[in-house]
Amino acid sequence: TGNCAPIRLRPGVLPGLERDLLVSPQHRMLFEGYRAQLLFGEEEVLIAARHLVDGCDVTVEEGGEVTYVHLLFDAHEIVMAEGAATESFQPGLRGILGLDGPSRARLLDTCPGLRAMPDSWGPSARPTLRAHEAKALFA
After folding, report:
1. pLDDT tens for each residue of 73-114
2. Closest CA to 56 of 7, 15, 23
3. Contact, 12 vs 57, CB < 8 A?
4. Which residues, 6 or more positions from 103, have their beta carbon under 8 angstroms from its beta carbon?
5. Cβ–Cβ contacts within 10 Å for residue 137, how many?
6. Whose CB among 19, 22, 129, 136 lies 3.0–4.6 Å from 6's, allowing a Cys bridge?
7. Every domain of the chain and the residues it spans
8. pLDDT tens digit string along 18-50?
9. How does DSSP classify residue 74?
10. Residues in a beta bridge with 59
11. Which residues contact 121 (CB under 8 A, 6 or more apart)?
């Protein structure tokens, strides 16, 4: 709940999305097309789910308990979830601090270089829009 409450994306809000998809608020979804190209000079951009909330097709699901599952690759990747393009886990300071204690310990044991340099995983698979940029994209 609160800042960690999942975001529900309904079919139709993203190209290819076949079923409702629940993601964490900071989880980024891929958008592509001419508007991104015109506004940001990029054909594909990532947008955090929390910046997509519209109260109708994209909503915050308050209440209850949630477990997030992260897919970690050697580099930040674009993956498919329920038919929509989204991102793999990109460890960085914010992402690492967002993990519960045991998950954080497993990650840091597996990738010890992240202890000293938490933002060393590498670049984002696509440019990421800020909140005001996401609003401009959908205006």
Report:
1. 999 999 999 999 999 999 988 889 888 899 999 999 999 999
2. 7
3. yes
4. none
5. 19
6. 22
7. 2-89+124-138
8. 999 999 999 999 999 999 999 999 999 999 999
9. S
10. 8
11. 75, 76, 90, 91, 92, 111, 114
